[in-house]
Amino acid sequence: MNKIQKPTLEICFTPDAVSFIDLTGKIAVVVDIFRATSTMVAGLASGVTHVIPVVDMADALHYKSQDYVTAGERNGEKIEGFDIGNSPFEHMAQEFKKIVMTTTNGTQAIETVKNDAEQVIIGSFLNLRAVTNYLKAQNKDVVIVCAGWKGRFNAEDSLFAGALALKLRSDFWWKGDETLFASHSYSSVKNNLSKMLKQSSHYKRLEKNGVSDDMEFCLQIDKFKNVPVLNENILENLPK
Amino acid sequence: MNKIQKPTLEICFTPDAVSFIDLTGKIAVVVDIFRATSTMVAGLASGVTHVIPVVDMADALHYKSQDYVTAGERNGEKIEGFDIGNSPFEHMAQEFKKIVMTTTNGTQAIETVKNDAEQVIIGSFLNLRAVTNYLKAQNKDVVIVCAGWKGRFNAEDSLFAGALALKLRSDFWWKGDETLFASHSYSSVKNNLSKMLKQSSHYKRLEKNGVSDDMEFCLQIDKFKNVPVLNENILENLPK
């Protein structure tokens, strides 16, 4: 924290960039807009009570014997032998309470930060205001961690980071050039977010898989009010 | 090259991101706006005939015995024992013909790509149009490699990448989300480039070192018409 007592805000455009930052005492906001973190928020807002994010498919199957529903994707497609995929609509079906989930990028990003950050929360356009309000109330340094695509930069996560940075501008010190860049980029496309993202690589990839509805859903702003937080490897909603 | 015979254009926001791309047969445009690549362009436009970029300070001193002027910086400051620093004004003084140069980021970025890319050229706002025209005439895939700051993203190099991507839009297929993001960010700040970059981390760092004039100089668009290219480890201007 700096001399006039505002916490800092930083953005990592990819999980690898976390290696440049000391996460000690900081809140990490993990973001994977298409679709992992949007789906986590949507499910936990709609009746799911526990989501365990895991890196390996084998780990997910291990929880199946403990009455967890297995969910996830690899390369944007449902995993063979798993109960459900990574669509927010599946997770909102109100059939499931406990889900174990593994995805190409989002759950890996959680793994990257969970041992070093003081707290890990889940961000998406769906709960942008709720995340904003929570962070403003904590008075702690924040790092927004974009999941990206297999280690590379992606547009949708970085635009969300810009949106969140703008919301937090007056309460935090922006640190690093990523905040500057992402906020300018978000400002210039916010009225055409969906149109701009239709040109993005991941949108085109998922469109081929027939999940355009999922993506339109994930771009809704403030549809939900919950903030998922990682407690002992389980994501649950923060108390309101 | 894809089916309708346009070459591709990609951006790496940091040298590390090059690891995701096969550079074989591609032209790498190395960018370090504050100040290495701007200074190389300015020097070579003003009487310098050879610039050898090296990674280590010891390597630079080795060339001193071969009548090379030693130039460079570490952390934005002139290196003790070197003849000159990394200011474009020093390199334009028309006193020197042959310079060996080592910098914190720019010369490292050249090192990262020089063995894999088919050709390495030097980009900056100072020679934006010249670089654009050269690339349009080659009909080869292009990768813009931002030097960043010690492995991290920086605003000025990424904004230049956005500017160059926009110039090449009709002649190249944009590949990856970086092109999309950088071009939107550049479009939104291009009329206030200097004002926006005054908030950037590297600008503030260099401002403390008293080189604000250097940075204003480096943000001039199309001041020079030369395109430096790496031949056998030596940067020289491409023939006009």
Kindly report the CATH topology of the domain at 8-35 and 104-233 in chain A.
putative 2-phosphosulfolactate phosphatase
Q: What is the spatial order of strands in the main beta sheet of chain A?
A: 7-2-8-1-9
CATH class of the domain at 8-35 and 104-233 in chain A: Alpha Beta
Residues in helices of chain A, as a percent range: 25-40%
The CATH H-level homologous superfamily of the domain at 8-35 and 104-233 in chain A: ComB-like
Most residues in contact, chain pair and counts:
A-B, 27 and 27 residues
Q: Distance N terminus to C terminus of chain A?
A: 26 Å
Can you tell me the overall shape of chain A?
globular
CATH architectural arrangement of the domain at 8-35 and 104-233 in chain A = Alpha-Beta Complex
Beta-strand percentage range of chain A = 15-25%
Q: What is the H/E order of chain A?
A: EEHEHEEHEHEHEHEHHHHEE
Oligomerization: homodimer
Biggest sheet overview of chain A: 5 strands, parallel
Low-confidence stretches of chain A: none
Would you report the number of β strands of chain A?
11
Mean pLDDT of chain A: 94
In DSSP terms (H or I, runs of 4 or more residues), the helix count of chain A works out at 10
Radius of gyration of chain A: 17 Å
- By secondary-structure content and strand pairing, the structural class of chain A works out as alpha/beta
